[in-house]
Design goal:
Layout (H helix, E strand, L loop, with lengths): L8 E4 L6 H16 L9 E2 L5 H13 L8 E4 L2 H13 L9 E6 L12 E5 L1 H16 L12 E4 L14
Parallel strand pairs: 1-2, 1-3, 3-4, 4-5
Antiparallel strand pairs: 5-6
Helix pairs in contact: 2-3
Length: 169
Amino acid sequence: MISLGHRRIAFVTGPQNLTVANLRLQGYRKALTDAGIPFDDALLIRGNFTQAGGKQAAEILAGLPQEARPSAVFACNDETAFGLMYRLRELGWQLPEDISICGFGDLPMAQMVTPGLTTVHIALRELGRAGAQKILAQLQNKQDPTHEMFPTSVVKRGSTIPLEHTSNV
């Protein structure tokens, strides 16, 4: 979204007790820092990886004064993004003209919602396999303190547009 010209980018977190959610928050903050964009705590919305959490985030965004609203929002996972998109449309927002939205995970539904959800693709099958292996190791009392990193890529769909094409300009 930074490459699309957005500078006021909200972030809907995942549960604070999950390492993966905290790593994504760190990635968001690093991306802002690397782009020279100051972190704004007012654009951080607590979430919980659910559609209901996304709907609650939409209510928070809609409650902001027009001048304080972000032009884009990154949801910590696709489920949250789906709830966010659904509730914002219910409230009369046009997507992506009023706000660009990006998720994380590239769930199959991401290409079926309207507009299609721009999202960060991660190999969910590989992620699940690694998780199962860790559980099996723990059940066998084997220690496996490693953290695995999986490659990601951005899948661009219709939920994001350049800043100059939004109503926030």
